Amino acid sequence: MTDRTPELPRTLTFRDLLLFKLVAIVNVSLLTPSAGLGRPALWLWAVAFALFFVPEVVAVLALSKRYPDEGGLYTWASRQFGPTHGFISGWYYWTGNLFYFPMQLVYLAGVLAYAAQGAESRLVDDKTFVASVALGWLALVTAVNFVGLGVGKWLPNVGAVCTAFTAVLIASAGVVAWRSGSAAPVPADLPPAGEIFSGLSVMCFAFMGVELASTMGSEIKHPDRDLPRAAMAAGALTLGIYVSVTWALQQLLPPGEIGVIEGILQGVDLGVRRLRLEWLATPLAIVMAVSLAGGLAAWYAGSTRIPFVAGFNDALPAALGRVHPRWGSPYVALLTQGALTIGFIAVTMWGSSVREGYQVLLKSSVITTLIPFSYMFLGLVGLKDEPAWKRAAGAAGLLVSVAGMIAAFVPGGDVTSVARYEAKLLAGSLLPLLVGLAFFVRARRRARPAWPLADGAR
């Protein structure tokens, strides 16, 4: 593997970073499982913020300052633990997103189904419709990123504005329901420990994304100045949105009626009725669709940099590291990621309902994404020249990440076959690693390491 740093145009400003982080972190589709937990969900969001998001920000800022190159989590683990562990971290981060994309595309299909046929639509259960939405979005986001981040960044930027608009409307509807005395009863008792454990893992997952811009470190105009400000601002806004929208959903819908896929749509439907804005339902669903599409575009662009840098340094096939001669984009990595996403959609939907497939995709993404986060937090703990409070934050993040991976194996109510559900999670966690290691071992036999091995690494 060669000791090279890929160079792409620096196009990201503070505004781009803030909007990029906001649309990457905020994911309203992940609020419905938490809203069903009742009133404890509100303080559980604060727990997830304190024990996961804050350590995440501390780790990202510390590591991105030390290792500002392209690649993010992949680069950080490589520099600290050696190329093998770096590859495992980057590979799991990338494959975690390959589960995340189809999961969000299923949700996007549900929103578009609502826009087309209203609250009674059954298109969300139609696999043909879901596949059509997925292919259409993949074609769009690949095309805009193909011509470079200078163009591709605008889809996440627009998505961030639409995310804020959606959150404000749902929160406003909740306030109207509460003030009018027609709010749904919200249980204050603690749900079973298994549900809390599983819900907290999804909440931690919902706070991921602050690290995403660091995968494009060499494309940020002023990383030292803008990354910390964007991370702190995005974090505060995200917590406010999550708590307010969860509270609003609970005012609008009884916990037992909040569907995993339809929950936000149910809230929107009741919200426009409460505000006497029924005419706004379809336009708002379209705004939500743009919001989701923008968030997906941010993750799609950021995660592509992992195989791009790995290909550039010969940890994966070298073709993945190619830059388009005209547009300056990692076009081979983009096309490869799109093709693999289609394959992941087909595999996870096989033999499952759309709802069960959504659960498998969600929990598989939680497990595979928390593995590189564990590397990141462990790396922060190992930085002996950092203050003790930063290393303590890393230890807290590491413990929460490990607990979250275990909790992801707790099946949800939409799972019809526990054995099949657990088998798919195990397969989704182990098979991608075996495939990736096969590529990595082959590359290491053909080239020397890209960076000096960390102490004790092999």
Write the layout of secondary structure elements.
Elements: H1 14-25, H2 31-35, H3 40-66, H4 73-81, H5 83-117, H6 127-146, H7 149-152, H8 154-180, H9 193-206, H10 223-252, H11 263-274, H12 281-312, H13 331-349, H14 354-381, H15 388-407, H16 418-446
Helix pairs in contact: 1-8, 1-10, 1-12, 3-9, 3-10, 3-14, 3-15, 4-5, 4-14, 5-6, 5-12, 5-13, 5-14, 5-16, 6-12, 6-13, 8-10, 8-11, 8-12, 9-15, 12-13, 14-15, 14-16
Word description of this protein:
71% of the residues lie in helices and 0% in strands. It has a domain at 14-70 and 102-355: Up-down Bundle (Amino acid/polyamine transporter I), CATH 1.20.1740. Mean pLDDT is 76; it is low at 449-458. It has 16 helices and no strands. The chain has helices at 14-25, 31-35, 40-66, 73-81, 83-117, 127-146, 149-152, 154-180, 193-206, 223-252, 263-274, 281-312, 331-349, 354-381, 388-407, 418-446. It is mostly helical and 458 residues long.
Helix/strand-derived category reads mainly alpha
Full CATH superfamily name of the domain at 14-70 and 102-355: Amino acid/polyamine transporter I
Helix count equals 16
Principal-axes geometry comes out as globular
Number of strands: 0
Q: Strand portion, in percent?
A: under 5%
Features:
mainly alpha, 71% helix, 16 helices, Amino acid/polyamine transporter I, disordered C terminus, 458 residues
